[in-house]
Amino acid sequence: xVLDNLGDTKFFEGVKLYLQGHQFQCTESDDFCxxxxxxxxxxxxxxMRVSTKEHGFLVLRVAxxxxxxxxxxxxxxxxxxxxxxTRELVLPPSGSLFKVDADHGSFFRTSYxxxxxxxxxxxxxxxxLSLRDCIGLSCDLNALxxxxxxxxx
Length: 153
What we know:
The protein is mainly alpha-helical. 44% of the residues lie in helices and 7% in strands. It contains six helices and two strands. The protein has a two-stranded parallel ribbon. α2 (8-21) packs across α3.
């Protein structure tokens, strides 16, 4: 996930810096974050805190709603990146299928409603989703069932 967010070059530059600076020493996850921050100039530790310091994982719940008064987000592309800085994001009812966390590169688990999950699994069986998306769906579903967030039936 960090690799996806930083890109190959910056990720491995950070790993190299970390290894050079901490040869044969005891370290903490913050030391890795510090190396990546030096290479990228971005704040990495803040976004990693939930993954490295907190128990459990973040869950993003995805469901359909037919509320006509909702704000609409227009997308002209097949894949769209959206910064989610609120607790709720409303997308337009396009009738077409959508998948959150394309190629499964984020720090959260995605819990789809039964209806949306069924549609995603149908598309996956047709080969419409990438291998990473299929593996991500399986991993998310397994973790959410084990944690008692989703039900088996």
